[in-house]
Specification:
Blueprint: H1 2-22, E1 26-28, H2 31-55, H3 57-62, H4 67-82, E2 86-88, H5 91-116
Helix pairs in contact: 1-2, 1-5, 2-4, 4-5
Amino acid sequence: MLTGIFVIWLVTAIGLGLTTLIVPGIKIKSTTTLLIAAIVLGLINSSIRPVLWILTAPLSLLTFGLFALVINALMIMLASAIVPDFKVRGFGSALLGAIVMALIGITGFILLQIIAGGNIEWYSIERTSQFYY
């Protein structure tokens, strides 16, 4: 499980680094800032984003899930407000950054599965019911 968390953090850091190279409105001053921003973004995504997804579920249904990009853009802007030397120029840059990071994340996890030569184990809790007769 710890390996999975590290892999997700690493993919987030790489995605954020590539996003700063692609999107002109997102800037990071140093590699240390990049790594800290990836940690903060991961913490925000694991704590605040699920609550926002639940609250905006009807809007996400109406937009066929595209509103999730708006939520991700807001999370990027929040991370930039928390981490010094991580700057996002405006909402447009954050939205473009969210799109780029989503594409990089999908590509990274697909490549990781190919490189690993198998399945990446995603942990979930399944509830099974047992009936005793």
